[in-house]
Amino acid sequence: xxxxxxxxxxxxxxxxxxxxxxxxxxxxxxxxxxxxxxxxxxxxxxxxxxxxxxxxxxxxxxxxxxxxxxxxxxxxxxxxxxxxxxxxxxxxxxxxxxxxxxxxxxxxxxxxxxxxxxxxxxxxxxxxxxxxxxxxxxxxxxxxxxxxxxxxxxxxxxxxxxxxxxxxxxxxxxxxxxxxxxxxxxxxxxxxxx
Length: 194
Description:
Blueprint: H1 3-10, H2 20-40, H3 46-57, E1 66-67, E2 71-73, E3 79-81, E4 86-87, E5 91-94, E6 99-101, E7 106-107, E8 112-114, E9 116-118, E10 128-130, E11 133-135, E12 140-141, E13 146-147, E14 152-153, E15 158-159, E16 164-165, E17 173-177, E18 180-185
Parallel strand pairs: 1-4, 2-5, 3-6, 4-7, 5-8, 6-11, 7-12, 8-13, 11-14, 12-15, 13-16, 15-17
Antiparallel strand pairs: 9-10, 17-18
């Protein structure tokens, strides 16, 4: 099964701990962990980091993408990057549900994008469900922010440092807090004072 087919199959499904799908996911996850250990245990040039990220994601990356070390993901194969992206150090992508980062996005250090949830039912708690994250063009995710499953961060939006995003963020706004709430609209002639 291709990575795209697997991602489609996961949407809206409950993935129980003893299922074949759960086992398949964990085999892919094991290989990803090996690649991430290789990536993160020594310094690499930008070009070498991109080589590793192409192995981790199974996709070509534009040379304009910059990913600082260390970088973490659980699954790896469900990450899609646009162009001219900057990801600072210690960022974590829990990407089983799919994470798409569009062009010109900035992601601050120690941010977390999480597409996986465990189940509420105590008897099935080790099971999973997933929902994708989309970060639209020119968005800025501040340091130590958390984006939860199923969230879209709008074009030009800013997620302030230390925020937890539990609802979609519209285009051209700044959100802050936990849970994050809109605190300001972004106007094109606004100075860089966020």
